[in-house]
Amino acid sequence: MNLIILFPDDFLDPQRVRLTGRRLAHVRDTHRAVLGDSLNVGLLAGLMGTGLITRLDEEALEMDVALDQPPPPKLPLTLVLALPRPKVLNRVLASAASLGVAHIHLINAWKVEKSYWKSPRMAEENLHHQRLLGLEQAKDTVLPELHIHRLFRPFVEDVLPTIVEGTQALVGHPGAPEPCPRHIHQPITLAVGPEGGWIEAELASLIRAGFCPVDLGPRILRTETAVAALVGRLF
User: Fold this and answer.
1) What pTM was computed for the model?
2) Phi, psi (degrees; rounded to nearest 5) at 183
3) Fewer CB within 10 Å: C terminus or N terminus of the chain?
4) Tell me, which fold does domain 77-234 have in CATH?
5) How are strands ordered across the β-sheet holding 61-69?
C-alpha cells in the first residue's frame, strides 16, 4: 500500500495512532519498516500526511502522525456499471477508486446473471474493502460513493435523469458510430455494460435518457480494461 488509511478509532490521542491486523502486517512484512521510519498516512475522508513509527512489534504499530495535506481531487465522473462477475467486481471497484471516480452506480442488465447479486462479494464489508484498496494504491482518502440498483428500468426512468443532468452522458458500446472523445473538460456520466454488451432495448433506453454511444475501437475489452481505457481517454 502506498498510503496507510487511518480510522477514527485508531487514534490514541490527536497525534498518535495504534494499528494492528492487516496494516501492521503490511508495514512489517512488505514495507519492512523499522523504528524511526516515516510512512505516508491519511485519515479516511480527511487529510493526509506522515506517520513516524514509534513502536513496531508483533502486537502493534504505533505512530506519531501529522496530517496537513488534502487528498487529490476526484474526477468529475459518475460511473454507471452493469454488475460484472464477482471476481471482476473486486478489480473494477479497486481500479475505479484508484482512478479517482467520484460516484459509482451498480445496475442490473439483461446479461447480468442473477447469481452475481447473491455473491459474498456484494456484502457491504467487501464493497468497502475493495474501494479502500484503491485508495491505498492511489494515495487518496475519499471513497467513491457507491449506489446499488437491482432493477434496470426504474433506475433508467426514475434515477438516471437526475444523475445525467448537467453532464456529458456517454455509453460505451462496441461498434458505436462515434469514437470515444478525448480530454473532456466537463462532468461526465459514463455507462459501461456487462461482458457481452448491452442488448438493443437497454441501449435504446440509455439513448433516450441522453446518452451518446461511443466506441473504443475494434478490440473487445474486458470490463475492468474498458473502464480504465475509457477513463484514461476521457480525462
Assistant:
1) 0.94
2) 50, 60
3) C
4) Alpha/beta knot (3.40.1280)
5) 4-6, 38-43, 48-56, 61-69, 16-19, 11-13
Terminal Cα distance for the chain, rounded:
25
Which residues, listed in sequence order, are joined to residue 169 by a DSSP beta bridge?
189
Domain boundaries along the sequence of the chain:
4-69, 77-234
Is 95 buried (19+), middle (13-18) or exposed (0-12) by CB count in 10 A?
buried
Place of cell 442488465: 109
Distances (CA, A) of 130 to 112, 123, 160: 20, 11, 25
Superfamily of domain 4-69 in CATH is Hypothetical PUA domain-like; domain 1 (2.40.240.20)
Quick check: do 4-69 and 77-234 share a fold?
no
Rounded to 10 degrees, what is the CA torsion of 14, 100, 96, 5?
A: -10
Q: Which of 184, 135, 171 is nearest to 2 (CA)?
A: 135
Q: Are 121 and 83 in contact (CB under 8 A)?
A: no
Q: What is the pLDDT of residues 70-85, one digit of tens each?
A: 999 999 999 999 999 9
Q: Which residue has the cell 459518475?
A: 78
Tens of pLDDT, residue by residue over 87-98, are 999 999 999 999
CA-based radius of gyration for the chain: 20
Residue 14 buriedness (CB in 10 A; 0-12 / 13-18 / 19+): exposed
- The most distant pair of C-alpha atoms in the chain lies apart, rounded to whole Å, by 61
